[in-house]
């Protein structure tokens, strides 16, 4: 796993980015493809699966609970599922590595099966709060013993039948929403999640695609998502669209490095994921959608991104759920914009793979960026198009998005940025540095 051997890297400017890149499969959709296929009866096929460590942790866990999962030489994955209700008792603990999505979604799946599972993870994952998933799953009848503070390692004893609940999300979290819906899959009756603030809706779209009875209604309290349990999922052929979060690094790199002109192919444009594009456009970025189409039930487009002078904005807090993973790279864009960008209302950043407010503040400040930290975000005074000073250290804290964001910052820095460890990039974007080489060749 990414924690094994730290990989330091000094990143300097390399000139304009040019050419075409196809980003790897979306991480959220890849996790769900494996999990839902593993619960269908029969053989599913998945093309374009993200082969990063996080998704491989999900694959290993589903195998340990009975699914047969293989990768063909053509890169297509084949999954033979056990059926809803058919998950088997794994022999050992499930190692979730760095992956919060694997952990919280699998906690949901296990909660309504009569098995007992111990979840473990790396130092980053073991510091993240699991109480948000423990609370609703306990209401459904699962017995969960967590480490102090509701953290990993934790042991979850599932129950069958579980009790259907109606649960209003106290935090905007697609992972918690999905955990409850997945527990609901094997629970008699109707399980409901009320979502006051919309978050990524891949679980809803995909579960419907797999044949689950799932409805989404608008109400004054928010979206009401209802799933009928004891569902039967039918195997699917899934084509995973490109990850907009991975695309974000190239969008910002091309926007801030003068002379750049790139095309990013096959980007998932699901509106619950496009907040960064909206924010960058507000800042004056040149992002053109070419060949908009549909892939695997999701809107997809190619994006042509050219260098453009960026202006500071107040990032609308309501964009937060649709760009929650993109704040680190947005902070890099803000560092070269003209004026003071204020990004607040993103308290959730404190509990991601690292505390992304503190980690980005430290990394940017060490490289001469002027900023102010709030409990829920940062204000950053940009250079107005000049390179950021650089010449400092950046500590990635086992956080892939920090490592990639600070790499992009290095491309727009006057002196090299010394990143202590870029190994975590393996969790979500193993080809990141090869792509960087090809775009700057
Ligand atoms: C994800 C949901 C988000 C996001 C994470 C992936 C998902 O987490 O940050 O990278 O696939 O459901 P939260 O649900 O904690 O906001």
From TrEMBL:
The gene is aroA. GO terms for biological process: amino acid biosynthetic process; aromatic amino acid family biosynthetic process; chorismate biosynthetic process. It catalyses: 3-phosphoshikimate + phosphoenolpyruvate = 5-O-(1-carboxyvinyl)-3-phosphoshikimate + phosphate. Keywords: Amino-acid biosynthesis, Aromatic amino acid biosynthesis, Cytoplasm, Transferase. Residues 1-21 are annotated as: Disordered. GO terms for molecular function: 3-phosphoshikimate 1-carboxyvinyltransferase activity. This is 3-phosphoshikimate 1-carboxyvinyltransferase. Residues 14-436 form the Enolpyruvate transferase domain. Its main location: cytoplasm. It comes from Sphingomonas kyeonggiensis. Its EC number is 2.5.1.19. It is found in: Cytoplasm. The keyword Glycoprotein does not apply.
């Amino acid at each position: 796993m990414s924690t094994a051997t730290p990989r330091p890297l000094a990143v300097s400017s390399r000139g304009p980015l040019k050419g075409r890149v196809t980003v790897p499969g979306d991480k959220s959709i890849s996790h769900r493809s494996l999990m839902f296929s593993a619960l269908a009866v029969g053989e599913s096929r998945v093309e374009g699966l993200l082969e990063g460590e996080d998704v491989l942790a999900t694959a290993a866990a589903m195998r340990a609970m009975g699914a047969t999962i293989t990768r063909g030489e053509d890169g297509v994955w084949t999954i033979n599922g056990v059926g809803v209700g058919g998950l088997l008792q794994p022999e050992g603990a499930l190692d979730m590595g760095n992956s919060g999505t694997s952990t919280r979604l699998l906690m949901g799946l296990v909660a309504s099966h009569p098995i007992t599972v111990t979840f473990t993870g790396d130092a980053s994952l073991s510091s993240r709060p699991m109480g948000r998933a423990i609370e609703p799953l306990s209401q459904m009848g699962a017995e969960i013993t967590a480490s102090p503070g509701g953290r990993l390692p934790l042991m979850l004893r599932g129950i069958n039948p579980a009790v259907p609940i109606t649960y209003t999300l106290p935090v905007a979290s697609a992972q918690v929403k999905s955990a409850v819906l997945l527990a609901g899959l094997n629970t008699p009756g109707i399980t409901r999640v009320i979502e006051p603030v919309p978050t990524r809706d891949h679980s809803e779209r995909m579960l419907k695609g797999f044949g689950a009875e799932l409805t989404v209604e608008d109400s004054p309290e928010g979206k009401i998502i209802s799933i009928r349990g004891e569902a039967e999922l039918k195997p699917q052929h899934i084509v995973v669209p490109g990850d907009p979060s991975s695309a974000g690094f190239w969008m910002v790199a091309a926007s801030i490095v003068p002379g750049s002109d790139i095309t990013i192919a096959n980007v998932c444009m699901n509106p619950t994921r496009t907040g960064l594009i909206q924010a960058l456009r507000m800042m004056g970025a040149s992002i053109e959608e070419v060949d908009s189409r549909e892939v695997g039930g999701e809107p997809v487009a190619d994006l042509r991104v050219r260098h453009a002078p960026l202006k500071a904005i107040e990032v609308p807090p309501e964009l937060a759920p649709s760009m929650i993973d993109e704040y680190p790279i947005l902070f890099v864009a803000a560092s070269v914009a003209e004026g003071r960008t204020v990004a607040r209302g993103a308290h959730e950043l404190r509990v991601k793979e690292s505390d992304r407010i503190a980690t980005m503040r430290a990394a940017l400040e060490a490289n001469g960026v002027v900023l102010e930290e709030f409990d829920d975000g940062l204000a950053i005074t940009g250079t107005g198009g000049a390179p950021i000073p650089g010449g400092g250290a950046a500590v990635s804290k086992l956080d892939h998005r920090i490592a990639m964001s600070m790499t992009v910052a290095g491309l727009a820095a006057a002196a090299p940025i010394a990143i202590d460890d870029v190994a975590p990039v393996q969790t979500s974007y193993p080809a990141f540095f090869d792509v960087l080489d090809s775009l700057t060749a």
